[in-house]
Amino acid sequence: MSKIIIIGGGAAGYFTAINAKEMNPDLEIIILEKSNDVLQKVKISGGGRCNVTHACFEPKELVKFYPRGNKELLGPFHQFMTGDTFEWFENRGVPLKIEDDNRVFPEANTSQAIINCFQNSVDDLGIKVLTSCGVNSIYQEENQWVINTKNQDFIADKVVIAAGSSHKIWELCKTLNHTIIEPVPSLFTFNIKDKRLTDLLGISVPNATVKIVNSTFEASGPLLITHWGMSGPAVLKLSAFGARFLAAKNYQYNVEVNWISKPTSEIVAFLSNLKQREARKTVLLKSPFPEISKRLWERFVIFSDIKVTDNWADITNIQLEKLANELTKAIYNANGRTTFKDEFVTAGGVDLKEINFKRFESKLHKNVFFVGEVLDIDAVTGGFNFQNAWTSGYICAKALAEN
Description:
- With 403 residues, the chain is an alpha+beta fold.
- The chain folds into 2 domains: 3-184 and 343-401, FAD/NAD(P)-binding domain (3-Layer(bba) Sandwich); 188-339, no CATH class.
- It contains 13 helices and 21 strands.
- The strands form 6 sheets. It has a 6-stranded antiparallel barrel. A 5-stranded parallel β-sheet has the order 6-2-1-10-21, with helices on one face. It has a 3-stranded antiparallel β-sheet with strand order 3-5-4.
- The longest helix has 18 residues, at 384-401.
- The chain is elongated.
């Protein structure tokens, strides 16, 4: 009987263990959990509802949501994909639903449905889960692995490291001669103090384009004004793809925002036409763009040096161009970042060049595997990080199930 130790429970660890045991019932599997509370990240994810995956069903499209790991995940996604995730959970009595933004949640609308599924499965399969069992060291003795914990030593034929973005575990990986890409924060909102945004908390636009000035990083999507600056899918996506660039700049950078994702020249022409058609109407009175709220429009107008009483006929071409620039290429200074909710994600982990992605096995050590966020793989918000956990866990399980 082959003995397997999985270090770190969490989504990836449980998923790996359950699949491996189902594929090969003769395996003896033990999950070592550092804390007393298991599956806490699953519990808080998606606002307590667990954003299980994302309704993107083409591997080539899905990998585009991963700033790091996109090339490496293309092959694995052809083996276990979003549709397989739906089937896996539904076969275990947890039907999933697709929401309007393509995020996927349990129909029960609570993360507890996922937690119960995992806990019931490990109980039914006889998989041991040992809590308060943090790992101190891993070393090889002949053809087996010794896992040292505070309470006892474990001997394993195969080891899976599934402890997520844990600095202690990354240090442990270094003792196995693995390279760790130093972690930096990903998925964060932009701290911006600017008079143009003051007191506009909660105002959003449906499709802005946000750029990091003097870089190639750009993202589009909904943008939300918050009390600390800017958030929303466009900003979070940009923070993920620009994570290392922004960390190197110590989070001091300029952001260019096109609030309506249209060329400046097109907006100049539109406003010029409006000046002719609406000559006697007050500029400030009504936003001519359905996606721009009245309060936000008023702010753009005022910061374009247009008086609150000015009619369209009164504004000069210089003012008109300035208004077009405020709408399409306004520059904001960002200073610092704020973590997105409780879902702290890092860009960093075990160097992907040292992993065999056909098995999620170490290229340096036979029978040592890595799944989930311990690897230098991360994604934008929306269920993608969990999909990485399911895919890596399933493929790793197939390798573990081999005799």
